[in-house]
Amino acid sequence: MNAYDATRMADVLAPEGYDETTDIAQADLVVLNTCHIRERAAEKVFSELGKVRELKEERAKNGQEMKIAVAGCVAQAEGAEIIRRQKAVDLVVGPQSYHRLPEMLRTLEAGARIETDFPIEDKFDHLAPPKPEKVASRGISSFLTIQEGCDKFCTFCVVPYTRGAETSRPISKIMDEARHLVASGVRELTLLGQNVNAFHGLDENGHSVSLAALTARLAEIPGLLRLRYMTSHPNDMQDDLIEAHASQPALMPFLHLPVQSGSDRILQAMNRKHTAQQYVDLIARVRSVRPDIALSSDFIVGFPDETEEDFQATLNLIKNINFGSSYFFKYSIRPGTPGAEMEHQIPEDVKSERLRRLQELADGMRYAYNETAVGQVMPVLFEKKGRYPGQIAGKTPYLQAVQVDGPDSIIGCIADVLITETRTNSLMGSLVGEIP
Ligand code: 5AD
Ligand code: SF4
Predict the structure, then answer these.
(1) Which backbone phi and psi does 48 adopt, to 5 degrees?
(2) Counted domains in the chain
(3) Domain final position from 371, 398, 420
(4) What is the CB neighbour count within 10 angstroms for residue 332?
(5) Are residues 131 and 233 in the same domain?
(6) What would the mean pLDDT of 309-322 be, rounded to a whole number?
(7) Does the Cβ of 334 fall within 6 Å of ligand 2?
(8) Which of 61, 113, 186, 263 is the most exposed place for a label (fewest CB within 10 A)?
(9) How confident is the model at residue 122 (pLDDT cuts 50, 70, 90)?
(10) Are residues 385 and 410 in the same domain?
(11) CA of 382 to the centre of ligand 2 (A)
(12) How far, in Å, CA of 210 to CA of 178, rounded?
């Protein structure tokens, strides 16, 4: 979502005369968009700010200005601290108030400004739509935020505090944004939300619309080929969404459904409100309607009081479900969350060792999963030029990266590819059949 927010910040600043640059030394304004989810991400902000300050001083020597803004969830959670520790920062803006950036910049006087309220107005109503050329320059696959915030309060997580209460955008606003993106060349949308399957946006008649029903409406937009969504909570996986994976061709057979742990004791301490068996049963239901669906998850190792036995339960769950890909994190203490106050915090070396074992297991499983693709013909949506001249890169329905030799004209199109080989981070293949 930070990637999406960054594009929207660029959009809101474009009418003010700002354009993006790839050379930070040229920037009149640097917006550092930050993440607070783990300690390491938050700490990085201060070292990055030190580097930006040096550039600001360089420019000042030449009589040029560089304003520094800090945005995102670190700004939200530690705005005052940022201003105190780094005097070069001009302003701080939270994830729910970045539509106010133009006004803040215009009225910026000596001294820093902080804007981390959760304003009454909806930021999306104040964001200028990007120009079609801008959308096109960002590629044929786009993010679209449909839901923000979270009311789940998992005991390790800062999101409910930094992103605020769970809210869904109205259907008409989402449809307008989607139509604009597709008219500008976008062919795939990934619908975003911290808890996206809890989506319940209101339609024109004030009726609540589920994520499954929203995908049906979006799928009718001519030119939109593929839909994806993330991230979901197991307890919000409604029947109609599961059913949509069988009946809605635009909805891709890929589900990122974080489980965090395979131990019931730890799941309970995390306030996840489901057991490992309930998760296994849920996956069985999803697979019963869509046997080929690719599954992915997030896991935390070293949550307070996690024993070797709890960890083994996580390894077992991973073997049992056979995820195509997964993300693993060492538990990171986040101030203000219940987890930070828990006893029996796990030593760093134990966390590292468990992380390594998980990674090893998952790497092997991911490789085996990708190997099953070899010899298959898959519809690949091509996104951009590949790594080497003549190569074009795309994605399978299962979100695997694929490289083929082919003409630029296939970018934005779906073409059949025979998968020939697995590499570390992608599949290799060749175009077969009709080339669009
Ligand atoms: N420590 C480690 N990982 C975390 N995540 C969220 N909070 C923490 C934390 N305090 C992970 C979860 C979540 C993903 C986005 O980040 O696995 O699903
Ligand atoms: Fe954080 Fe996700 Fe739990 Fe919400 S459901 S508190 S975003 S981990």
Answers:
(1) -60, -40
(2) 3
(3) 371
(4) 18
(5) yes
(6) 97
(7) no
(8) 61
(9) confident
(10) yes
(11) 32
(12) 17
Lookup result for tokens 């979100």 = 399
CB 33 within 8 A of CB 5: yes
Residues sharing a CB contact under 8 Å with residue 65, sequence separation 6 or more, in sequence order: 28, 59
Domain of 392? 377-431
Same domain as 415, residue 349: no
The pick from 154, 235, 270, 274 for probing ligand 2's pocket by mutation, whose C-beta has the most ligand atoms within 8 angstroms, reads 154
Final residue before a domain boundary, out of 329, 348, 371: 371
**Ligand 2 pocket, residue 233 CB under 6 Å:** yes
Residues 104 and 194 in one domain: no
Give nearest CA residue, ligand 2 atom 1: 157
Q: Measured in angstroms, how far is the CA atom of residue 172 from the centroid of ligand 2?
A: 27
Whether residue 436 is contained in a domain is answered as: no
Ligand closest to CA 272: 2
Mean pLDDT, rounded, of the chain:
95
Residue 191 shares a structural domain with residue 220: yes
The percentage of residues in the chain with a pLDDT greater than 90, rounded to a whole number, is: 92
* Predicted confidence (pLDDT) at residue 373 exceeds the cutoff of 80: yes
Q: What is the DSSP string of 34-78?
A: E--SSHHHHHHHHHHHHHHHHHHHHHHHTT---EEEEEHHHHHHH
Q: Confirm or reject: Cβ of 270 under 6 Å from ligand 2.
A: no
Position 248 in a domain: yes
Question: Is 111 exposed, middle or buried, given 0-12, 13-18 or 19+ CB atoms closer than 10 A?
Answer: exposed
pLDDT tens digits along 290-301: 999 999 999 999
pLDDT in tens, 107-120: 887 676 888 888 77
- Interatomic CA distance for residues 11 and 347, integer angstroms: 44
Amino acid at 43: E
161 and 280 assigned to the same domain: yes
- Using the predicted structure, report yes or no on whether residue 70 has a pLDDT greater than 70: yes
Q: How far apart, in whole angstroms, are the C-alpha atoms of residue 87 and residue 49?
A: 10
- DSSP category for residue 249: T
